[in-house]
Write a structure and sequence with these properties.
Order of helices and strands: EHEHEEEEEHEEHHEHEEEEEEEEH
Structural class: alpha/beta
Shape: globular
Radius of gyration: 22 Å
Low-confidence stretches: 364-371
Distance between the termini: 22 Å
Strand content: 15-25%
Mean pLDDT: 88
Largest sheet: 8 strands, mixed
C-alpha cells in the first residue's frame, strides 16, 4: 500500500476498499484473498465497530445463540460447538474474531468512513478517520444497524415516560413492573414483546398493518421467492425492504403460547402520543411508562452521497451487487443480500465483478488464480 498515492500526501493507493466487517464484509474480504489480493497491500477492510462481530456485538444479552434464526457460517470456516445458552453477541463476536485471524484479514478498527467521492485518475477517494484511500473499487458492507428508524407522531415530545428503539434494547429486566407499548410488527418487535410480557406490569402491541403469520415449512424455494421480491425493489431503485417483510412471521411453539395468552393481540397504530401514553381518534387511550419502537432500520449509506447513486425513488439501483450508476461500487448486505446466507453469496459475487473491473483498470495488480 502506497502512503503517498496519486491523490496526494497521506492518501494511500489500494485496489479495493471494503467498508464494514460484518457477515457481508468478511465474506467479501475472504473472496478477495482467494483471488490473490493481499490485505493492507491490495485491499483494506475498514470497520467502525470497536471489536469483531459486526452488528451482532450490539445485540441484547437475552438473545442467546439458541434463539438466533438461520445464522449461516462464513465461507471457509464453520461455526461449531457453540453453546446455545450463551449470548449471541459473544458467540458470533468470537467466531468473527477467529475468522479474521484465520484468514489474516487485518481489519482496521475502529475507523469511521465519512465520505466516498470522485478522486483522480478514475479512482474513488475514500475519506476516513485514519486518512484517505484512493481505490479502484469499493465494496460497501455497512448494513443497517447504525440507522434505526424512528417514526414521528404528534405529541411525541410531550411523553413523560421513556422512549427507546430496539437498537438500544437492554433486555427484559429493564422493563420489570412497567407498562410498555411495543410498536412494530417485525421479528424483533414480537421477540421483545414476548420477553417483556414476562416481567412487565402490562404490555400493548401496536402495528401499522395486521401481522402475517407463516405456518408450515419455509424451504429453499420459498426463500428464493421472498428474496426475489426484495430484489425487484432494489432493481427499480426503491429503498429495500427486509426479507421478513415479505415472508411473514414464523409460528413456533413460543409464539402460539403467547397468542393464546393474549400477548400478541395487536392494536392498530395510534394517532398521537400524550404525556401519559398514546391515544386514538376514536377515543381509546393506553397509559404507558415506556414506548419501545421496534420499527426497523434503514441502509447506512450516507457516506456514499457524494457519488449521487440514489435514484428518484430514494434507493440505489443495483444489478446483482453493482451500483448501476457507478460500476466501481458494489453493495453487499443491501436489500436481498441482507440475510446471512445472502451476504455470503453477495460477497462472492461482488469480488467476481471487481476482478473483471480490475483487469481492465490501468495500473492495477493482476490477481492470481484462486488458491
Amino acid at each position: 500500500m502506497n502512503d503517498f498515492g496519486s491523490q496526494g500526501v497521506g492518501v494511500r493507493d489500494v485496489d479495493v476498499v471494503v467498508v464494514g466487517a460484518g457477515q457481508a464484509g468478511l465474506s467479501a474480504a475472504y473472496h478477495l484473498r482467494r483471488t490473490g489480493l493481499e490485505p493492507d497491500r491490495d485491499f483494506v477492510v475498514l470497520d467502525h465497530a470497536p471489536r469483531p462481530g459486526g452488528a451482532w456485538q450490539f445485540r441484547w444479552p437475552s438473545l442467546t445463540y439458541g434463539k438466533v434464526h438461520g445464522m449461516h457460517a462464513l465461507p471457509g470456516k464453520e461455526l461449531v460447538g457453540a453453546d446455545p445458552d450463551r449470548p449471541s453477541s459473544e458467540v458470533i463476536g468470537d467466531y468473527f474474531a477467529d475468522y479474521e485471524a484465520a484468514f489474516g484479514l487485518r481489519v482496521h478498527r475502529p475507523v469511521e468512513v465519512s465520505a466516498v467521492r470522485e478522486g483522480e485518475d478514475g479512482r474513488l477517494l475514500v475519506e476516513t478517520s485514519e486518512g484517505g484511500y484512493a481505490a479502484r473499487a469499493l465494496i460497501n458492507a455497512t448494513g443497517t444497524w447504525d440507522r434505526p428508524f424512528w417514526p414521528r407522531y404528534p405529541g411525541q415530545e410531550t411523553f413523560r415516560g421513556r422512549q427507546l428503539h430496539t437498537a438500544g434494547y437492554p433486555g427484559p429486566d429493564a422493563f420489570a413492573g412497567l407498562r410498555v407499548i411495543v410498536v412494530g410488527g417485525g421479528a424483533s418487535g414480537t421477540q421483545h414483546l414476548m420477553e417483556i410480557a414476562e416481567v412487565a406490569a402490562g404490555t400493548t402491541w401496536v402495528t401499522r398493518r395486521e401481522p402475517v403469520w407463516r405456518e408450515g415449512p419455509f424451504g429453499e424455494a420459498e426463500g428464493r421467492a421472498a428474496v426475489a421480491l426484495v430484489e425487484e425493489r432494489v432493481r427499480r431503485g426503491l429503498p429495500p425492504r427486509s426479507v421478513v417483510s415479505v415472508t411473514g412471521l414464523p409460528l413456533n411453539d413460543a409464539v402460539r403460547a403467547a397468542r393464546a395468552r393474549g400477548i400478541l393481540d395487536r392494536l392498530p397504530m395510534f394517532d398521537r402520543i400524550t404525556p401519559t401514553g398514546v391515544a386514538w381518534d376514536d377515543g381509546r387511550t393506553v397509559d404507558a411508562d415506556v414506548i419501545l419502537w421496534a420499527t426497523g432500520f434503514r441502509a447506512a449509506i450516507d457516506h456514499l452521497a457524494p457519488l449521487r447513486l440514489r435514484e428518484p425513488g430514494g434507493g440505489i439501483r443495483v444489478e446483482g451487487t453493482r451500483a448501476v450508476r457507478d460500476p466501481r461500487v458494489h453493495l453487499v448486505g443491501y436489500g436481498p443480500s441482507a440475510s446471512t446466507i445472502g451476504a455470503n453469496r453477495a460477497g462472492r459475487a461482488a469480488v467476481a465483478g471487481i476482478r473483471t473491473l480490475l483487469r481492465s483498470s490501468p495500473g492495477s495488480r493482476q490477481p492470481v488464480a484462486a488458491r
